[in-house]
Design a protein that fits this description.
By secondary structure, this protein is mainly α. The chain contains 3 helices and no strands. Helix 1 packs antiparallel against helix 2.
């Protein structure tokens, strides 16, 4: 049986990778993917704590987080497509003012 600390360590590493991707990347799609990695790190923590406690509460919460993440990805990609059609760039610096 794998201890809880190993799951939490992997979750922390994934969250750090996602945070680094959001802060260092200069592409909107890469930033969106980094946010998804961060959400998956949180999901791993929920499942690990639920397994440790012997309940399925963590898995139920993960189900709702995945649902919200799917909606966030759909809306985020729609916004990114709209911005790309307007400015023809995916660099976040090009959208600093957001004046149409």
């Amino acid at each position: 049986m794998i201890p809880l600390s190993h799951y939490l360590l992997v979750s922390a590493v994934l969250f750090c990778i996602g945070t680094t991707g959001v802060f260092l990347r200069r592409n909107l799609i890469t930033m969106l993917l980094s946010v998804e990695i961060m959400l998956n790190a949180v999901n791993l923590s929920f499942v690990a704590f639920g397994r440790q406690m012997g309940t399925v509460d963590g898995q139920i919460i993960v189900f709702f987080v995945i649902t919200v993440a799917a909606a966030e990805a759909a809306v985020g990609l729609a916004i990114i497509i709209g911005l790309y059609r307007h400015r023809e760039s995916l660099n976040p610096d090009a959208f600093a003012l957001l004046k149409w």
